[in-house]
Amino acid sequence: MRIVCPECKNNNDFSDIEHRPAECSFCFCVFDASLPAAEITAQPGGVLRGLKLIYQQTGDEIIVESAYCIIGRENTGAELLRKILYCGSPVISRKHCSITVITGEYWLKDEGSSNGTFLGVDKKNCSVPQKLSDGDLFYLGREAFMVKYMYEKPIETKQPEQQHTDTIPIVEVTNQNGNPNETNKAKKYRCNEGCGFETETYEEVCPKCYTCGSLVEISS
Questions:
Q1: pLDDT for res 92
Q2: Closest Cα partner for 45 from 146, 154, 134, 148?
Q3: What are 138-147's pLDDT values in tens digits?
Q4: CB 133 within 8 A of CB 105
Q5: Pairing state of beta strands 61-64 and 47-55?
Q6: Average pLDDT, the chain
Q7: In CATH, what number does 2-152 get?
Q8: Any idea where the domains of the chain sit in the sequence?
Q9: What is the pTM of this model?
Q10: Whole-Å CA distances, 49 to 37, 104, 167
Q11: Percent of the chain beyond pLDDT 90?
Q12: Is the backbone of residue 157 left (phi > 0), alpha (psi -120 to 50) or beta?
């Protein structure tokens, strides 16, 4: 689910109504109870491969891709976490919290940090492991981070293209009797008067012996 902050217009995502934020994690604008929360219907596809932990003050990200990691100033996310100071003092412990994958789910646990680790707007204490869901907010001390699932999209397999072969249409040729199994044969004519004249076209008068009507059809 998601609430769009009316002040800074940033998205505040959360997993369910029990984790509805009371204030914007970006500008800390207080959300009125009547402010609508929209359903996020589009779900990414693929296999879950890790988490993005998004620091709500700057948008910087910590990437978690292993089954177990320590978050802290001298561990995963050190480059970002060392910069978070309050009155010149570090806010995040060297070994602040841990994230562990158990049966496909991510669990957050405080590792004895100075300022504590808390889950959700109701700030459940993570001295006991708490399950992380997509869109959850958690706090390292007072610093808010949002959990975003990272998915590995399945490899798309292309279907082999069908090869089109040119086909030559078969044309049936029928003879004068209408039989499709017999092809037309070229006609020949021969003079029946014995002069030996032959032709493929019928002539009324034999051009060799000048006999009228003497050409008869013969088989080719």
A1: 95
A2: 154
A3: 999 999 999 9
A4: no
A5: antiparallel
A6: 82
A7: 2.60.200.20
A8: 2-152, 185-220
A9: 0.54
A10: 28, 10, 50
A11: 41
A12: beta
- With a CB cutoff of 8 Å and minimum separation 6, the contacts of 41 are none
> Parallel, antiparallel, or unpaired for β 117-119 and 105-110?
unpaired
Cα–Cα distance measured from residue 98 to residue 143, given in angstroms and rounded to the nearest whole number: 16
- Which CA distances in Å does 98 have to 54, 72, 150? 16, 9, 18
Rounded to whole angstroms, what are the CA distances from 97 to 19, 83, 130, 176? 21, 17, 11, 96
Residue located via tokens 């003050």: 57
CA 152, distance to chain mean position in Å, is 10
Report the alpha-carbon distance of residue 175 to residue 161 in Å, rounded. Answer: 43
Q: Which two tokens stand for residue 2?
A: 């998601």
Whether the per-residue pLDDT at 61 is higher than 90: the answer is yes
Nearest to 214 by CA among 184, 185, 194: 194
SS3 for 58-107, per residue? CCCEEEECCCEEEECCCCECHHHHCCCEECCEECCCCCCEEEEEECCEEE
d(CA 219, CA 191): 13
